[in-house]
Amino acid sequence: MNTDPVVTHPRLQLITLDVNGEQHDVVTEPRRTLVDVLRHDLRLTGTHVGCEHGICGACTVLVDERPVRACLMFAAQAEGARIRTVESLSEDGGGELNDLQRAFTDHHALQCGFCTPGFLMLAEGFLAERPEASKEEIREVVAANLCRCTGYQTIVEAIDACATARRGACVTPCGGPDSKEH
Question: What is the C-alpha to C-alpha distance for residues 148 and 68, in angstroms, rounded to an integer?
């Protein structure tokens, strides 16, 4: 008797996701969202579920280094892509905060913290693409996510401080996501 869940339950499919540099085989229904698979199957609970309509940005992750609302993407759509969650930001995987997380802490850019993972991933993707971004550009980008506690100014200041520090740390002009100087 065949006990393979994909064979015995035809509504299930086997997908392989590359999350934070690790391959994960997941048996799931095609209709499940990426945020649900990340949180419930892979236990990566740093990605938060807010509105489930793509409005708040709490579920923002990077897919091929670009910010994506994980509540609007089916997990099956992410197969073959590189997914990064907020857990990928810690330095050396040991839980040490990276420069962007430290900037958020130093600038008091979080209060309740619910929206923070989404803002961090939005900022990480944006700064990889636009390391020379102005405060005005940062302000425009962060307006895509919702925060009910901070008022955004401290978030903008934290992202700007991180961008400035990253530019100063680069030996040559900072590159995009392939730059190893950050």
Answer: 21
Residues near 86 by beta carbon (within 8 Å), at least 6 away in sequence = 46, 47, 61, 117, 120, 121
Q: Which tokens in the block code for residue 74? A: 């089916």
Q: How far is CA 31 from CA 11, 23, 35, 75, in A?
A: 10, 21, 12, 8
Q: Say what the pTM is.
A: 0.85
pLDDT digits (tens, 9 = 90+) for 105-129: 999 998 888 999 999 999 999 999 9
- Give the pLDDT confidence score for residue 92 in this predicted structure: 66
Nearest-10 Cα torsion for 80, 94, 66, 55: 110
